Amino acid sequence: MSRIDTETARRVAKLARIAVPDDDLPALAGELSGILDFMEQLGEVDVTGVAPMTSVTPMRLKRREDVVTEGEMAGRILSNAPDAREGFFAVPKVVE
Amino acid sequence: MLDLTYDAPAPKVIPGATGDWELVIGMEVHAQVRSNAKLFSGASTEFGAEPNSHVSFMDAAMPGMLPVINEFCVEQAVRTGLGLRAEINLKSAFDRKNYFYPDLPKGYQTSQLYHPLVGEGEVLVDMGPGLARRVRIERIHVEEDAGKSIHDMDPAMSFVDLNRTGVALMEIVSRPDIRGPEEAAAYIAKLRQIMRYLGTCEGNMQSGNLRADVNVSVCRPGDYERYQDSQDFAHLGTRCEIKNMNSMRFIQQAIEYEARRQIGILEDGGKVTQETRLYNPDKGETRSMRGKEEAHDYRYFPCPDLLPLEIEQGWVDAIRDSLPELPDAKKARFVTDYGVTEYDAGVLTAEVENAAFFEAVAEGRDGKQAANWVINELFGRLNKEGLGIGESPVSAAQLGGVLDLIAEDAISGKIAKELFEILWEEGGDPAEIVEARGMKQVTDTAAIEAAVDEIIAANPAQVEKAKENPKLVGWFVGQVMKATGGKANPKAVNQIVAQKLGQ
Predict the structure, then answer these.
(1) Record: contact A94-B159, CB cut-off 8 A
(2) Which of A19, B15, B229, B411 has the highest CB neighbour count under 10 A?
(3) Which of residues 31-70 of A touch B (CB under 8 A)?
């Protein structure tokens, strides 16, 4: 049984940059715990010697050649940005 | 393969108030892969372009975009691994390293935590003739670079350029085998040299395509040997990581400062806290990045957008077969084949283009003499003028022509330098210039005798003195050389002067 407490829920929300009001944290913690408990049922299966399945059909990772095929469209790249100046995305100051 | 044998250099020792301390250093070097396109998109990797011009929808993390791996970047990482005599893992996989920063639009970096492409290898770090440190490589993984944030263009805003976002990086992780600041710089220099030979990384530290995180700890003499015997880190001190260094000089300064800081804490009875620190080159000190620690919960998990990377042994073998001669082998061969000193061989092989130039000059000629001319005259002059070997006004064929004229006794060493000067300034064929400008050495004994007679006749007082003081022979030789414009064969002049003065 895994238990996500309120503090862990707060931390997870912060790492994911999701603003969760304090009042909502206990309910969120309960839901997250429920999800984990559900997933933990998988732990009952003995997978000793079974390779992890990474694909439903046996496929090889698709490759591309080392050729420049995209880019040169700064205008389009920046068109959805809330703020852009002199070709840059402009974001609230991040201090090192 | 020819191999020179090396002794391990002594570790750096810092004397403290309570006895001696030693340094233990491990490094994570981020090397940008030399490729045309990025690791997972078809955007260009070219440096210095207009902001956000080399950005695809994938790099900008537009919804629905999926990564497709650039096979050449994988090949380059494999080639680097082989150059560091490392194991290549035929099966590796990509993981997501999650963190938020404006220059990482996806919110995660695609990297390889659990199954890196390249496993254990080693680098021989030259520390002087006969001395080298063997540094073990723990792993090399392939990952993507982040973009660039500029903080000083506006008081309230940071500006973000995603041109670098998604460029392939190789993170080369060493074992803690580096034992001093100079070794750390030499280690990076050696990695850079090997990768430049391989053509896998430009290695330009100014433009940031080689950056290092440096892990530093201190211990007492004997502790490191105990660690080596047991591979138990408990024998070593607590380490601090200095992040994102891109200058050899600053790396050395930062290590020196950090070691002394840790020694100070320990000698005052304190404990070193494991943490990430930043070096401030203006103040010459490192400072803690504490407070950001919470952000370093990366929640790695296998990247669901990418199947495991499976490569074939035959492909790896073909890359291995195409490897060029690497610096250690080339250096050893220069010592053996050309009879140059290990030091000179090191200078000549520092850059692959320099080594090729030297070989073109030395081919079929006196190797030692070729080395002297290439290092002292050519490299000396290039350095003075701030030119690279590719910009040399004197070609290997021209310099070889000069050496041939010396070997034939057609010109003296002194005239050869004048000839070099002419070639540098005006170009041309060395043999033709010597012929056309009458620079040929006079070996005709009668002509030299006449010149000697003239000097003797004109300086009777000196002749008297020379009878008392045999050292004055040199003065006569000098006068004759001057009178013949330096073209007389000095050996012949010496003989004739001594003979005429009756000595």
Answers:
(1) no
(2) B411
(3) 54-55, 59-70
- Tell me B237's DSSP state: P
Segment B13-27 shows an average pLDDT of: 97
The residues with which B310 forms a beta bridge, in sequence order, are B91
Q: Across chain A, how many H-helices and E-strands are there? A: 3, 3
Distance from the A84 Cα atom to the nearest Cα atom in chain B, whole angstroms: 8
A25 domain-assigned: yes
Going by pLDDT thresholds of 50, 70 and 90, the confidence category of residue A2 is low
What architecture is the B445-500 domain classified under in CATH? Orthogonal Bundle (1.10)
Neighbours of B348 (CB within 10 A): 25
| Alpha carbons B88 and B34: distance in angstroms, whole number | 19
Q: Which residues contact B52 (CB under 8 A, 6 or more apart)?
A: A74, A77, A78, A87, A88, A89, B161, B162, B163
Q: What is the CA radius of gyration of chain A?
A: 22
Which residues on A lie below 8 Å from B302 (Cβ)?
A: 54
- The answer to whether the beta carbons of residues B201 and B156 sit under 8 Å apart is no
Residue A81 touches chain B, beta carbons under 8 Å: no
Instruction: For residues B261 and B23, give the distance between their C-alpha atoms in angstroms, rounded to a whole number.
Output: 12
CB-nearest partner of A87 from B52, B149, B154 = B52
Q: Which residue has the tokens 């957008």?
A: B305
* Contact yes or no for A72 and B42 at CB 8 A: no
Indicate if the pLDDT at residue B450 is higher than 90.
Answer: no
Q: Which residues of A touch B104 (CB under 8 A)?
A: none
pLDDT tens for B467-487 read 788 788 888 888 888 888 877
C-beta atoms surrounding B336 within 10 Å: 12
Partner-chain contact A68 B43, CB within 8 Å: yes
| Nearest CA among B186, B197, B203, B211 for reference residue B83 | B197
Yes or no, beta carbons of A88 and B161 under 8 Å apart: yes
Range of the domain at A31: 6-43
SS3 B169: strand
Does residue A21 sit within a domain?
yes
- Domain boundaries along the sequence of chain B: 14-293, 324-436, 445-500
Q: What is the pLDDT of residues B269-315, one digit of tens each?
A: 999 999 999 999 999 999 998 655 555 689 999 999 999 999 999 99
Residue B158: closest CA among chain A residues belongs to which residue?
Answer: A93
Measure in Å the smallest separation between the Cα of A66 and chain B Cα atoms: 5
